[in-house]
Amino acid sequence: MGGSECRLTGPDLDEIAYRTSLEPLARQNRLRELVLATASFAMMAALALSVAAQPRTALQPMPAQEWFNNYKTYLSRAARVEKSAEAHYRLGRWAWEHGLEDEAWEQWVKALAADPDHLETRKATGFVDTEGGWERPGQVNPEWVSQVDAAGRGLSFTVAIEDDASAAFFDELSWRLRRLNWFLWKITEGQVYLKEVKVVDLSTTGRFVVPAGQLDVPVMAGGGASCANPGRPDWRVISGGRCYVRILGHEMLHGLFGLPDERHGCYCLMQGGLYGIKTPDLRLCDAEYHRPDPSAPESCWSIIQRRDPSMTHPNPADYGRAPEVKIEVVDR
Q1: Angstrom distance (rounded) from CA 175 to CA 7
Q2: β-bridge pairing 208-210 and 154-161
Q3: For the chain, where are the E strands, in sequence order?
Q4: Strand-strand pairing, 133-135 and 193-201
Q5: Measured between alpha carbons, how far is residue 209 from residues 107, 221, 236, 238 in Å?
Q6: Hey, CA dihedral for 286, 59, 100, 109, is it positive or negative?
Q7: pLDDT averaged over 10-residue windows placed end to end, the chain, 332 residues
């Protein structure tokens, strides 16, 4: 993007991404996450005071304490939910309506594992029943996708899982990667997507790495993500196995474009602590919506277009829905 520095095609990218050892980085990441989470919580708590008394819109965050209360209620209900497609669907719907997007999908994936044709779950996850089976609405625009590929923005990489992963974990991660693909396509206005992802367990070499002991750690228990070497060809993401899709997208855009964290109330994907706002409502800030700050003087779209002048915003093209990501699982 903007030359070859962010291009993610080619066989040697995963080796480039692993020039340094994981352990020192993992320690740095845990400290960084703690510091950033504390700062983000403090900022969003103050922001929530000004928001709480207003009618909530799509881009107004839920007060932090309300979100945490909902999360605790979810954990309690999930621990005793009946193992049936209908029960998982209903809990997922409750989670979605209470600002817990990834927890909703956690239940819906289980519902579809129990019954792939569960109608309400398919509707909730955005699928329609066609003659060819369950599909997402809309059409892929192959000509536009070819242009994105030619620009090097159809991304191919490996996800390395250090532990021995189960079939259920691979299935859940595959859904997470599909959602990440849809999200990247939407938030970049059809200009970045996941083309091919290989998922390998008992491995340490990949653009994304799930460290040992992090397979089933929830985000709120330290299973988040961080990006090393943002904006450089050797960027990589260290992530918990259950990390939220919005966080994965956030960290990927650190890596791809060197976007900074927004920590001053900018309603943007790169802003931390936007509790309850779901991926369909998130955007990347532009000159109209950006809130300048010494740490982030430029809007996200300004930085992206400086790094890659071929990207446009707003994108006038009829880019269609995201092409589906090809996922290869290597279970060792």
Answers
A1: 25
A2: parallel
A3: 128-130, 133-135, 154-161, 193-201, 208-210, 225-228, 236-239, 326-330
A4: unpaired
A5: 24, 18, 8, 5
A6: negative
A7: 34 36 44 45 42 47 94 97 97 97 97 96 95 92 98 98 96 97 98 98 97 94 95 97 96 97 86 89 93 91 97 96 97 92
57 φ, ψ to 5°? -115, 180
Contact 229, 255 (CB under 8 A): yes
Q: What digits encode the pLDDT tens for the residues 251-286? A: 999 999 999 999 877 889 999 888 999 999 999 999
- Please state whether 162 falls in left (phi above 0), alpha (psi between -120 and 50) or beta: alpha
Give me the residues paired with residue 320 across strands: 140
What torsion, rounded to 10 degrees, do the Cα atoms 64, 66, 71, 73 define? 160
151 neighbors 213 (Cβ within 8 angstroms)? no
Two tokens, residue 298: 């430029």
Q: Residue type at 149?
A: D
Write down the pLDDT at residue 59: 63
The amino acid occupying position 84 is S
